[in-house]
């Protein structure tokens, strides 16, 4: 595996110096400031490459931009409205420019309106640190009482609705506002400027789009961009829905193994693949990460390795972002499958036999407490995650691992 780290750009609190000290091998980044749908020019791509090529003192960082996360797919493409055709052409142009500058692994997602959804961004843990959490009851209370979506109550079972009534009744205004801000935090654009009315309007645009229709739009997008990616030698990799179940009445089409199979078969090319994110997928008990890796291994182009603890059975359910090795997903079994896949690729002589991975989110611990920053992206929690994952990788690669059952 290539050990990578997400860098949001020059304003990121982590520097190349920090990453080098963490043992990071490559950088994951994106030009977040370019509006979705527009072309990423070669010049802007090179500017970012240049920014991450140097340490604070100007000496070479030895690190390169290896994965793009994300080259976002516009809402127009997802809905096939407005400028969607132009956006697809622009997407191809961006792929071309990225490839010209050596960038071949391109992550994106196909979640309508939302990216990730949590009810708590700093949920206190018994050890004193905090993490992000999805509380199903809070979420239902938001949907039914704050957003007041028409069919909200029908989206949850009776028990959840009853608990949400009780929860909302005891919620003060401060928590109501915070909850609304947290839930809408994964929406595109600045959170501050999105009112509940704006959110209602964004959701209403999907009234006539069910999962089948969204899937058709997704396949159209792939049919257009995958031939370009093939020509360029680019690997596209779709990040799964986070969390992997329907929310706010929106269609969700990348949540399970069946979903992946449908999409990978529809446009059956190695250029169209997956970002296997164990933290997102692990919020469902029927997503067995090791089994998913075995099933789709050859089409997995990027890995997000983190863990969640499912707090109750069923789908949907509450969960929180656990320590990397302590949640509901068996990370050793998952990583062992990744190592097997990499061995197969090596035998086949695949150029991409090392799959890039990053620790994805982390808990806020130690000096990160009290520091604000991108939710989910504290330096020390991710560093701890990376160190723990590296421990597993090292142990599995050691000859002694094969002798353990004697
Ligand atoms: C959350 C991330 C996602 C991811 C996008 C990929 O922290 O894993 O925001 O970057 O969904 O397109
Ligand atoms: Mn992820």
TrEMBL record:
This chain's source organism reads Tianweitania populi
Q: Which family does it belong to?
A: Belongs to the mannonate dehydratase family.
The protein's name: Mannonate dehydratase
UniProt keyword annotation of Transferase present = no
The cross-references to InterPro entries, in alphabetical order and at most eight, read: Man_deHydtase (IPR004628), Xyl_isomerase-like_sf (IPR036237)
Regions crossing the membrane: none
Could you cite one Gene Ontology molecular function of this protein? ferrous iron binding
Its Enzyme Commission number(s) read 4.2.1.8
NCBIfam families cross-referenced by the UniProt entry: PRK03906.1, uxuA
| Superkingdom to which the source organism belongs | Bacteria
Name the chemical reaction catalysed here: D-mannonate = 2-dehydro-3-deoxy-D-gluconate + H2O
Gene3D superfamilies named in the record: Divalent-metal-dependent TIM barrel enzymes (3.20.20.150)
Q: What is the lineage of its organism?
A: Bacteria, Pseudomonadati, Pseudomonadota, Alphaproteobacteria, Hyphomicrobiales
Does the keyword field hold Manganese?
yes
Top-level EC class: lyase
Instruction: Tell me the cofactors it needs.
Output: Fe(2+); Mn(2+)
């Amino acid at each position: 595996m290539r050990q990578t780290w997400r860098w949001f750009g020059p304003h990121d609190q982590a520097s190349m110096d920090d990453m080098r000290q963490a043992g990071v091998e490559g950088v994951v980044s994106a030009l977040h400031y370019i509006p979705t749908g527009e072309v990423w020019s070669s010049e802007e791509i090179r500017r970012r490459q240049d920014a991450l090529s140097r340490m604070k003192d100007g000496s070479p960082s030895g690190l390169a931009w290896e994965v793009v996360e994300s080259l976002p797919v516009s809402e127009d493409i997802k809905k096939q409205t407005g400028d969607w055709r132009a956006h697809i052409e622009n997407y191809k142009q961006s792929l071309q420019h990225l490839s010209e500058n050596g960038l071949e692994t391109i992550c994106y997602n196909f979640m309508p309106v939302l990216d990730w959804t949590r009810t708590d961004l700093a949920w206190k843990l018994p050890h004193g640190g905090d993490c992000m959490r999805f509380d199903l009851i809070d979420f239902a209370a938001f949907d039914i009482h704050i957003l007041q979506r028409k069919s909200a109550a029908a989206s949850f079972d009776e028990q959840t609705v009853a608990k949400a009534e009780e929860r909302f009744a005891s919620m003060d205004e401060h928590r109501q506002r915070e909850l609304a801000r947290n839930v809408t935090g994964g929406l595109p654009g600045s959170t501050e400027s999105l009112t509940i009315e704006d959110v209602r309007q964004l959701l209403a645009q999907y009234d006539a789009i069910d999962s089948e229709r969204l899937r058709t739009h997704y396949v159209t997008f792939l049919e257009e961009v995958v031939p370009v990616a093939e020509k360029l030698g680019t690997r596209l990799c779709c990040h799964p829905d986070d969390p992997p179940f329907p929310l706010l009445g929106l269609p969700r089409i990348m949540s399970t193994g069946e979903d992946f199979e449908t999409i990978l078969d529809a446009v059956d090319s190695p250029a169209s693949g997956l970002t296997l994110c164990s933290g997102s997928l692990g919020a469902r008990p029927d997503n067995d990460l090791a089994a998913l890796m075995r099933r789709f291994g050859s089409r997995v182009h990027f890995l997000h390795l983190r863990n969640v603890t499912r707090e109750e059975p069923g789908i949907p359910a509450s969960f929180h972002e656990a320590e990397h090795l302590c949640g509901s997903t068996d990370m050793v079994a998952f990583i062992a499958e990744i190592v097997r896949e990499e061995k197969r690729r090596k035998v086949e002589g695949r150029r991409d036999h090392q799959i890039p991975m990053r620790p994805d989110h982390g808990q806020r611990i130690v000096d990160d407490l009290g520091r604000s920053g991108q939710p989910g992206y504290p330096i020390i929690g991710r560093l701890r995650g990376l160190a723990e994952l590296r421990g597993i990788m090292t142990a599995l690669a050691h000859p002694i691992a094969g002798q353990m059952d004697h």
